[in-house]
Amino acid sequence: MSSSQTTVRSQPPETDLAALAARHGLTVSGARPPLRDYTRQLWSRRHFIVAFATARLTAQYSQARMGQIWQIMNPLLNATVYYFIFGVILGTSKGVPDFIPFLVTGVFIWTFTASSVLAGTRAISGNIGLVRALHFPRASLPIAIALQQLQQLLFSLAALLVILVAVGELPRVNWLLAVPALLLQALFNTGLSMIMARLASRTPDIAQLMPFILRTWMYVSGVMWSIDKVLSHDDLPHVVKLALQCNPAAVYIDLVRFALIESYGAAQLPPHVWALAIAWGVLFAAGGFLYFWTAEEEYGRG
Question: Domain limits of the chain?
């Protein structure tokens, strides 16, 4: 028997190597940990998530001369355009009391969700170097991006409140109801961001389609027109009415309008709205997290 044959026979089979690695705590690079361990790892990275979100927010408009002012100017400019087209030309302001605060509130709250979705599609692909170089829970990225959008909302919300006061909406106790509504929306946005992060990591073309999808979603969310006026039409199919009432974007917009606009909140808010807001927030936060976690091993490959 030759020495080379002896060497081959003396090598342990692949299964023995795997068992040896397991006994010494070695795992496959990028392997998905159990859900409980993954959650613990994610919590241990909470300081990184906050720092990453803050750094992205600071750098977002660093090349623009007006800097962070664009965080406020973008939704304001959109609201101005929508007011001219829908309020003046198309006349959707007729029958809608306090149309300016109605429209501005809708645009700011919608922008919160739309920005979270768009940023979520780039959570993995836009940080592919970080994903491939370091070992950390990949969910940190879409969560940090959703947190960045929440931080940006705080700037926008300050501007929104100033605008509301300028058009005659004085501070009321009801304004505090906007806090739980926005927190539930933030949960919903985070889950949606994680879903989009996984989908776009597999199919990058989704990022190109999202502006068109979001524009359609915005038009059916009552941002610049009153859903209640449409629901009052008897000839509207029941399934369409149900879809409009359960639309998560419309639900969160309605809640914030109810909290901030006195004439809008004077009417009785249907009890299903808060229930829907909680259900959408919890369902997407939990479902989006699980959906993202199940593909943990796939991110950064290829």
Answer: 33-298
